[in-house]
Design brief:
Order of helices and strands: HEEEHEHEHEEH
Radius of gyration: 20 Å
Largest sheet: 7 strands, mixed
Strand content: 15-25%
Distance between the termini: 68 Å
Mean pLDDT: 82
Helix content: 25-40%
Length: 185
């Protein structure tokens, strides 16, 4: 090693701490997500809704892909959760990742008879709004006022989602009926 360049243990420690801080900022979820009511979601059938139209009810926004094994694994749990809580005002919107071809998403949803709303994010706008969604499956629970009250990565902890959603379900009143998936043929 060149005797002119020799790092002291303090310099090595400072560099290691700085690298760890940068890694944490890039990899760990943050609270920087700011949801705007005018964020548009393009549904599988081509219609568009905004997050603002869903105010007044709890909404679970999940990010997934047809090629993601854990996403496919959690599908029965999501269908069951939606079936249980939707009559009480709960909404679930599954946002397909930008790299997932819409025709694959459409076929998947039709074949598996997904009952909840599916949105396409071809340009990645929704994904970027939710802090870049680095890992899927990912889920964000939004309260009736439009604030994110829970976020999860990996397979959804359904009991946790039920527990956090429960107080909001009792406050829900009738409102927008989010359309179900009507395939475009």
């Amino acid at each position: 090693m060149n005797p002119r360049w020799r790092a002291s243990p303090l310099v090595v420690f400072v560099i290691a701490v700085a690298l760890a801080a940068v890694a944490a900022l890039l990899l760990l979820p943050t609270d920087r997500v700011t949801l705007t009511p005018d964020l548009h979601l393009t549904l599988l059938d081509g219609r568009r809704i905004t997050l603002g139209e869903l105010r007044g009810r709890p909404v679970l926004v999940t990010f997934w892909a047809t090629s993601c094994a854990p996403c496919v694994e959690e599908l029965p749990d999501l269908i069951k959760l939606y079936g249980e809580l939707h009559p009480r005002g709960f909404e679930l919107i599954a946002v397909a990742m930008p790299y997932d071809p819409p025709i694959h998403v459409q076929s998947f949803v039709h074949t598996r008879q997904v009952p909840y709303t599916v949105a396409l994010d071809v340009e990645g706008t929704v994904m970027r709004t939710f802090d870049g969604v680095r890992v899927i499956p990912a889920a964000f629970l939004i309260d009736p006022d439009g604030r994110i009250v829970d976020r999860q990565t990996g397979k959804l902890d359904v009991e946790r989602t039920r527990r956090i959603s429960a107080p909001y379900l009792s406050e829900v009143t009738s409102g927008l009926q989010v359309p179900t998936n009507t395939p475009v043929l």
